[in-house]
Amino acid sequence: MVQQVTSGIKISVETNFEGTFYKNYKVHFAFGYRITIENQSKDEVQLNSRYWRILDALNHEETIEGEGVIGRKPMLKPGESHTYNSGCLLSSPFGAMQGYYSMANHSKNSHFKVYIPPFKLSAPFALN
């Protein structure tokens, strides 16, 4: 598990390898990740959008931007947390992800970024 705290918001990430499959005559490696967003600040905050940078071992890069996470824009009071599961596909058995959430601080009427720490994606069969 990797963790990082930005402006009182703690991000924890756990990953797992889901398997391989073929699509359009090409092998894909599926990875899942579980993210917990914990509000350790004294203010009420809301996650508005996300930005991801996904890299694989073949130097393919993909960026993803969008509103909320899994169709939600969670509001977190001090001490509350939100956990969700998602995933990605890579063209290689190794890769990494990192990014940030755009958040609103409703107590101070301000906006800020919460960084998602870089985390590795690796298929266990490919490890030496």
UniProtKB/TrEMBL annotation:
Q: Where is the ApaG domain?
A: 3-128
Pfam families recorded for this chain?
DUF525
- The lineage's top-level taxon is Bacteria
Q: Which residues form a coiled coil?
A: none
Give the record's GO biological process terms.
Answer: error-free translesion synthesis
Record's SUPFAM superfamilies? Answer: ApaG-like
What protein am I looking at?
A: ApaG protein
**Species name for this entry?**
Winogradskyella arenosi
